[in-house]
Amino acid sequence: MLSRRLFLKSSAIIGCSAAAHPLLSSIAFASAPGENRLVVIILRGAMDGIDVFQPYGDPELRKLRQKISLGPDQGAHDLDGFFALHPSLSSLMPLWKAGELGFAPAVSTPYRDKRSHFDGQDMLEAGTGTDLDVFQQRDGWLNRLLHNMPGAESETAYSVGTEQMRILAGDAPAKSWTPKINLKLGPQARMLLQHVYHDDPLFREGGLEGMEIASQSMDRIKEKKGPTRDARELARFSASRLNGDTRIATFSLSGWDTHARQSVTIDGALMSLADAILTMREDLGKNWSKTTILAMTEFGRTARENGSGGTDHGTGGAMLVAGGAVRGGQALGKWPGLGESDLYAGRDLMPVTDIRAYAAWALHDLFGTERGALESSVFPGLDMGENPRILA
Amino acid sequence: MATYPELAAIRLGYGLSAQTPPPAGQDEVLASVKRAVADADGVTMAAVRKGQSRLINLAKKRKNGDKSAPEAIKKQRQSLSLLVLRDTQRRFARAVDDPAGFGERLVQFWADHFTVGGGDVVRRVMVGSHVNEAIRPHIGGRFADLMFAAETHPCMLVYLNQNNSVGPNSQLAKKKKGKNKPGLNENLAREMIELHSLGVGAEYTQKDVRQLAKLLTGLTYSPGHGDNFRAAYAEPGKITVLGQSYRGDGPPKIDDIRAVIEDLSRHPATAQHLSRKLVTHFISDDPPQSLVDRLAGIYADSDGDLSAVNAALADSPELAGHFREKVKQPFEFIVASLRGLGVTGEEIMGLKPKQVRQWLEFPLTGMGQKWGRPAGPDGWPEAADDWITPQGLAARIEWAMNVPQKFRKNLPDPRQFMQTALGETASEPLQWAVPKAETTRDGIAIVLASVDFNRR
């Protein structure tokens, strides 16, 4: 812990100059790292895993929930005789059948008890344990992965959207872009700006690249209107980069904080998630077979529904995995049960696996990252345990 | 060569204005510090407590199955969101209107030095109160008073978890047993030393942080309590921080905390740390050590009087020597653009919520400065390359192309606008480019998106 603290201190001092450090930037000349692609979607607001993957085979479910999570009788799609998929995700059923969709029903970060969205998300994105105050965890685990990825360059990883993605923050160079930028420039205006920027390398390079990406994404992003448009835009831009030199993309979807009338209020978030996945599948084409999507949330929600037909902040939750590269069509890991004594603190789903272990094994299998680096640097202090074999 | 009025407006303020002439001299620059006082109709903690208490009551009702509660919670949150939005408008309006702007820049600087961030809507309203009630009254006074106000404000207490910190031997801790026994949280203590006073490179140890954390116990916030110090939460007995002892045998008092802040503010490392930050922010990402030392000396000799430091900064020859070594942060960029266009604070206050979001708030996010949401307690970055990224610059160009015409149906002649916004400081390439723009709109955008305008 002391050495980590010292590391933070010294990185705070070098801070801004780190990106320009010759040792760090020299990796930009190495070759691009492999063909496998990873998309991490952060589901902000705490997705109710029990409602998304409904454990209707557990007899306790009906005692805890009467208005929501009603199983196949009320339109949910049976998955394996025990779990059923929420009706609003029906468009993903073909993926389940093709073995391109799976989930881990009871996972969590090491975060416990305070149940604050912001601290929970910070810990999820930092990928660290409880040995360090949450707010000191400034860099994210995808950024630390880049440090352990031979051949990584700034184009390798992209954070997409206006939401800050702490998961990719840190001193390893990475790109960010929001498809919301709507920059139409005529050729004359573009030429004049390039002239104005010419003598200032920072503006010259930033301007050139910014105008370039803007014009490319303008061609691609003519998204149909509708409630899931933002999600489709994020997914389409991500796919466009992943079809190029990018191998890691991350963005977030919100709308999961369903404290009341969850049977209605969760719909929009679920449809956005489904459309994001389907958009990527469509746009990635043959690259879909090399793609793994991990959709993670900061924590789960209470096992019991509350007085307003919603759920409150909990602990264990679900992680969704999708993509042509995954070993789908099944639930990953154990189911802890919903009996009174099975629950965490008598109220929340008990997490059976650290969500970071799944992420770590995914990185191991996708990018060949060594276990030693994963357990010490990317997810410091993590015990990865057995390989759950997310990938096919 | 830029004149002093131009340098003062561009480097110490929010840029040249179509409405008011730049400050003629140092006196006019410093007068703006006196104007940057708290808003009469700004956000107050009293308003926060009221709104927060209502939300807590409604949440209880919702838990008990009250059908009307979810709708009432939504309404209450919306009304708090509007408070936040009004507060944002006010920050823009005051920065746009003030003739010299140095005071408003200092508000931004010190609010960032004592960063607090949101979370939920309640926290975001509290951030407004922190700026209004803790920062604004002290930017021209003693640093110790500013620091005391900033550290003990409820927003800081919540942001850095001080409200979860209880003395291990306090009256409260003695009453509880086992898992529920409360304990220390070091967050505020650590940042008070590491970020707010001595700086991370200074000579202090983990033990000093731990001891300061003990001394800070008692500081806490809950919406129903008017007093943010509760002796029952405080660690009793003598506590030593950086070789100085505080809190003897008597009952714990908030004065102990005032005393340690006085001592932290007088530490030589604090003078260096604050001076370096000021020079980095106002002069150069690579701050000239001679100016840092000069300001630190003035700070030490005046017992931490910020008015003396402000005066020395406003008078420094380095303003001319390091011109355009800094990049305007996104908030500065938008304010400076509006000043150049002659938009008034009154117009900004008259915007509809949707307009504030689309023309001011969302663009800030695209440029990398999500308003009220810095990534951590060390605030916004200072380095030019943190802001001028492909996305950050594209978002500035986009704003320059699209938003000016929302405010002004008849945009000014671009050549004249270049003169208004940059005075005699426009570079050759810009003077060459602007007259060649195909449309007025493009011409204005090229001025606003230029290196000349985005650097200061």
UniProtKB/TrEMBL annotation, chain A:
Keywords in alphabetical order, please: Signal
Chain segments annotated as transmembrane: none
- The residue range of the signal peptide is 1-30
This one is known as: DUF1501 domain-containing protein
In its UniProt entry, the species of origin is given as Paracoccus onubensis
From TrEMBL, chain B:
Task: State the InterPro entries in the record.
Answer: DUF1800 (IPR014917)
Kindly give the Pfam families that the UniProt entry links to this protein: DUF1800
Q: Which domain of life is it from?
A: Bacteria
The name on file for this protein is: DUF1800 domain-containing protein
What organism is recorded for this protein? Answer: Paracoccus onubensis
Task: Tell me the classification of the organism that encodes this protein.
Answer: Bacteria, Pseudomonadati, Pseudomonadota, Alphaproteobacteria, Rhodobacterales
